[in-house]
Write a structure and sequence with these properties.
With 192 residues, this protein is α/β, with parallel strands linked by helices. The protein has a single domain, classed as Rossmann fold (3-Layer(aba) Sandwich). It contains 4 helices and 11 strands, in the order H-H-E-H-E-E-E-E-E-E-E-H-E-E-E. The strands form 3 sheets. The chain has a 7-stranded mixed sheet with strand order 3-2-1-6-9-10-11. Strand 4 and strand 5 form a beta hairpin.
């Protein structure tokens, strides 16, 4: 099973690496527009956790999403990887927050305001691929699955994907599926 996941991971990494800067920015803008619609449909959601893009990995420009959330006065959080426990810790983002890359190239706030994750209602989640059931493939370290385990089960897990869902991703016991996935063209709901 792990071998099959590694093949899918490698395939989508390569596909993403082949995108031009313009294609990536266009995809990011389309995703941001659908995030606006998502927020309109989930008015009661006020606490959003987002990731920030690792440039070398051609990740979606989520600074666009940060601007949308700020314009709506939403509380915004991100995470940093604790260097000792390797667990994700929740960090509050404010309008004046500035970022710098950590050792993995992940943008993290220069000044960390660590907070509880109890208020989070929506987690925008990075991924390489997603299937039609909401199973995702990330980078294989399991950070988000462990993070999801600690959150209230009502928290919405929303993947952001440049590519449309594929038919099937092998699921392992520790994998936690998404509730939604937003691509440049569609918002998919995986709710049972």
């Amino acid at each position: 099973m792990t071998t099959e996941k590694s093949v899918i991971r490698a395939y989508f990494k390569e596909r993403r690496n082949q995108l031009s800067g313009g294609e990536l920015q266009e995809a990011s803008q389309k995703i941001a527009a659908l995030v606006k619609e998502f927020c309109d449909c989930h008015i009661g959601m006020n606490h959003f956790h987002i990731f920030f893009p690792i440039k070398r990995l051609q990740e979606i420009d989520t600074y666009l999403i940060r601007a949308i959330l700020e314009s709506r006065n939403k509380a915004i959080y991100t995470s940093r990887i604790n260097p000792i426990s390797t667990e994700m810790e929740t960090v509050l983002i404010e309008k004046q927050t500035e970022f710098e890359p950590d050792r993995y190239g992940i943008p993290v706030p220069k000044i960390l305001k660590l907070v509880s994750s109890k208020s989070i209602q929506v987690v925008f989640t990075p991924l390489l691929a997603v299937d039609t059931l909401g199973n995702r493939i990330g980078y294989g370290k399991g950070h988000y699955d462990r993070f999801f385990e600690k959150l209230d089960h009502k928290v919405l897990k929303v993947g952001l994907s440049i590519f449309e869902p594929i038919k099937m991703i092998p699921k392992e016991s520790f994998d936690i599926p998404l509730d939604y996935c937003i691509t440049p063209e569609n918002t998919f709901s995986f709710s049972k």
